[in-house]
Specification:
mainly alpha, about 0% strand
Length: about 350
């Protein structure tokens, strides 16, 4: 205790022996002062605590991005300064929390280049996230490709997040497909960590199932997301439509189409032309004129009608033996679609249906 008091007095300015006397008078229990120096172990601990504080403080004082954190670390090590990996990771976390991404990336890059440090999977994922933020998705992809397999699992979730954030769903779905068995695991990890259920993320996995033709699995997954509180968007229904059309489950495809159309007041959705045509053919073959007319009217409003679609509509009238009353030719002209010989013959035939059936 006495030694500690003396040290404080000696470092205080101005210093006088009178101040020491006052300490002795105020502490009558002090009869002598130990001159035994601190042990080497104590000195090492003191040096380490001071070093750790100075290192952290020094990096955090680099307020401007142009002041390189990597250069600071080179100088620190060159001057005999010590550090631990966990200490640097803590500094990186603090920098990210302060939105000082440049310095955070510089520290991780310096760690990556330091021979005695091996970045963990979490370190790689954090670095990839910072690269995507600062340099763009393309640079993040390059970094991801070069990662060891053991680190790709954690980093893939980060890359997937950026794909979804930038609405690059095609790449997100491709990544899911490449990961194969890991795709479900990545989604589970995201689901565990997320606060708000982002339907765009689940759409990626849904799309991956559909592309592989796993419609039963896709349907179960879709129902699972609904139970978890997910709110489907037009893309959800588009994916399901595409899958069910390919699978020949047209009634399910039509149901998904109706749900997708119900969202049109909230967005500008244009379902794939191939899917649209397949559903039109389904109504034609089924002979469901009521649903067909509703369907084609929606398509007209979306400006998605084509010569092929008009032919399908007219053939639906013919298939159910109902006379065509509408002026299809005028509708086509308004839609900017040129009539050909085949559609003219179909219209003529459909307008005579009532006469032909009675005759």
């Amino acid at each position: 205790m006495a030694v500690a008091l003396l040290r404080r007095l000696i470092h205080r300015k101005p210093f006088s022996f009178l101040s020491i006397s006052s300490v002795i008078l105020q502490n009558p229990s002090i009869t002598s002062f130990s001159t035994i120096p601190p042990t080497s172990e104590t000195r090492e601990k003191e040096r380490f605590v001071r070093s750790e504080t100075d290192l952290r403080r020094g990096i955090l004082r680099l307020r401007f991005p142009r002041r390189s954190a990597a250069t600071f670390m080179d100088d620190w090590v060159g001057g005999g300064g010590k550090f631990t990996v966990s200490e640097l990771r803590g500094v990186v976390v603090s920098l990210i929390q302060a939105e000082r991404y440049e310095h955070a990336l510089q520290i991780l890059s310096w760690m990556d280049s330091y021979e005695q440090i091996h970045l963990s999977s979490s370190d790689h994922a954090t670095k990839l996230d910072l690269i995507a933020k600062l340099q763009g998705t393309a640079q993040a992809e390059d970094y991801f490709v070069k990662l060891p397999i053991t680190s790709k699992k954690a980093a893939s979730f980060t890359l997937l997040h950026h794909y979804v954030k930038t609405r690059d769903l095609q790449k997100a779905e491709t990544l899911m497909a490449d990961l194969q068995n890991q795709a479900e695991r990545i989604f589970k990890d995201w689901e565990f960590e997320c606060r708000n259920y982002d339907i765009r993320v689940s759409n990626v996995l849904l799309g991956a199932y559909v592309r592989k033709g796993l419609m039963e699995k896709a349907e179960k997954f879709h129902n699972y997301t609904l139970k978890k509180g997910a709110v489907p968007n037009y893309k959800t229904y588009e994916i399901l439509m595409e899958g069910w059309v390919k699978n020949g489950e047209m009634e399910k495809a039509v149901e998904a189409m109706k749900k997708g159309f119900s969202l049109l007041k909230y967005c500008k959705w244009r379902p794939p032309v191939v899917v649209v045509e397949k559903i039109g053919e389904y109504f034609e073959k089924k002979g469901d004129l009521v649903e067909a007319e509703k369907y084609f009217e929606v398509l007209r409003n979306l400006k998605m009608m084509s010569l092929k679609m008009y032919k399908s509509l007219v053939r639906t009238y013919i298939n159910v033996d109902v006379m065509l009353v509408k002026n299809i030719s005028l509708d086509m002209i308004k839609d900017g679609i040129e009539l050909d010989e085949e559609i003219e013959e179909l219209i003529l035939r459909a307008k005579k249906m009532d006469f032909l059936s009675n005759g």
